[in-house]
Amino acid sequence: MHTSSHALARLLGDWSAGPGPAHRRLADLIRLLILDGRLPLATTMPGERDLAAVLGISRTTVSTAYAALREQGYLSARARSRSRTRVPPGGSRPEPDTTGRDLIDLSHAAPPAPGEALHRAYLRALDQLPRHLPRHGYSQLGLTELRTAVARRYADRGLATTPDQILITSGAQHALGLIARTLLRPRDRVVVDHPTYPHALQVLRTAGCRIVPVAVTDTGWDVESLSAATRGAAMAYLLPDFHNPTGLCLPERDRAELRPGCPVVVDETMAELALDVDPPVPLAAHHTGVVSIGSAAKTFWGGLRVGWIRADVDLVQRLGQARAGIDLGTPVVEQLACAELLGEIDRLLPDRLADLRQRRGLLLGLLAARLRDWTAGPSAGGLSVWARLPQPVSSALAAVAPEFGVRLAAGPRFGIGGAFERFVRLPYSLDAAAMTAGIDGIAEAFAAVQAGRRANTPPAALA
Ligand SMILES: Cc1ncc(COP(=O)(O)O)c(C=O)c1O
Question: Which family does the record claim for this protein (predicted)?
Fold first, then answer.
């Protein structure tokens, strides 16, 4: 893969502002792009002269930045050939900070498992396992027990669904990958919320799609603009149910008023985490042809690796067949455990939501006390707040944060073209001690960035 100077310039966004020498800033940001996956591994970098011309800087600045990245192991160093991106051995592992402490991971928005309930669900799953052992164990579309439980949950949420409309996957990410692989072609236009979930952008980039961003702001979605953008597109990938990263929820009226001009894929991974509003009725209840993606990851636990697709029966069959090109089914015990958990969801959810409300309250309190000039955007649920910084230094902050014991996801990961340098996603899924130490670390890192500090050590990769 090759990246052009113009494409790299778009990814770098407004990189030139800020303290420190330009070659350091350029090297820091290119390294962050590599670690974030926004510059894929083995990408051939633009030539120094060309990049310098496009960025409007001297060739020496670019060659000094490239030389530093080669020395740190982020660019290959073969004579007479273009540099290619790489990660040094150990560079993609979570790294302890300089004092040997493990970093506090604020780069994931994923809650811990409800331990007791999960344990119980696995015990019951093991009790049922003997029934499945005489058969081969490959479930291309998923076990009937789980497809039935997922369909029932859709019906409870206000969308009549039959089990044959459900395909079980190994998580929502797998579901999106399968949909992209089956329904999208290179150069297809795909409309996305902006900001959006970074790993979805990764899927769409890998599929070679042209990504069309539609803004999600503090006031949510502009349904008219969104409808207009979908006209003639190949697909829209939307997060109306406690949007990641903002936590916003598309109101009922807007759901009805949306006029999709292309097939819509709705990622409902956060849909059960309604903290301040009534649980939304799925978008698919308002419009035919909407494909819904769901997951057990946030409602129960990411380690289950269970998700699903709800679509019409023909598409479910088609996706099920296409699946063989990726994998041959989701593990049986995890599916049985997930069906058990879904059977208990009405009993489990209230405690889960109460716990998340408390964690969010703590995070907002810490923010108000330690980072007074940051503002937390409005949210209605989910697992994170989208915090606005007083200066556009999100990437610089994420780059120095590991030196202060914290891993952070920089705002531009959630967008395209280097947008969102003024934002950071802050999850409230950690426990009180970790969140307190995490916000303390961010406050120190932020003060250091404001005082002109650049990253001394490369930041750890963000998963
Ligand atoms: C919006 C969204 N979609 C998909 C995923 C991936 O879910 P899974 O763990 O089920 O693959 C996540 C996880 O963070 C997410 O937030």
Answer: In the C-terminal section; belongs to the class-I pyridoxal-phosphate-dependent aminotransferase family.
